[in-house]
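Researcher: First entry.
Model:
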Amino acid sequence: MIQHTTSRREREDQQRRQDILSVAEDLFSRQGYHETSVSDIAKNVEMGIGTVYKYFKDKQTLFHELMVARVEETMKHLLGVVDVDGDPYEIINAFIDGYVDYVSRNPNFLPIYMSQIHYQKAAPERFRNDMARIHECKTTLLTKLVDAFDRGVEQGRFVKVNSVSLMVALFGMVMSHFLLATSEMISDEELDADEIKQTIKTIFFQKVLVDETK
């Protein structure tokens, strides 16, 4: 069996593509898609604008490839965390830990993720297969969370609330917590992943109102 050996030129091209994507991710997350130009990306990656266009047809293609790669990476990571048949409470705990750990290590992810939510409906036809693949991956993840809540309710571990509503509440909580944490309101504070995990679990799994009769 003949094995393909990557040439130095191919390795250099791969590294340049990755450098462009890394710089673009930082700019898109800080400035937004519309406020970031290919010229901005070329300047910050220290390449000529023609070199950037050599690897990416246009800004939309660059953003699309970046967004697809990051969202698929995240969903596969989270699926690996929840893809077990075990105690529902432990599965939800593992999801919270996995989500917080991933976003803490990849602070530029959430702005990109939020952008793709609005981008999905307007994606050109040439990108529809990619968007369908992402949608399927997200649906699989959310379905597994709903299943864990279903089993938890049946076992009497969770309150009798619609499992889809519980999934939406959990997903919204972990996502919005990071969106607020990275906003200008508290952007100067250092994020502590363990503290964030504990805060989310305390709010989600325990009552917010204090029982004043005790």
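Researcher: Second entry.
Model:
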Amino acid sequence: MLEIILESLELFENTDLVIEPVSDPVKKLISLLGNNEYSFSQLMNMMGLKHRDTFRKNYINPAIELGLIELTIPNNKNSPKQKYKLKKRL
């Protein structure tokens, strides 16, 4: 699992883009994802969090904006079957 995080971070180091630093909450989130897909509720439970808005603001949205995670149903963000996974890097 840590290897996946390291590979993701190394990919960012090898680009010429200016990238915002990855916050500790986002690092924790991507470390939990591994190669699996999880729903919003599953991720909150795994992290021991209860406040949905805070989880979305501090964990999910920054990870999506940084291109670290992606939605499994991108065309329907509010789908009850929506899950999150690490974004594949080339």
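Model: Note on the second entry: The helical segments are 2-13, 24-33, 40-47, 52-65.
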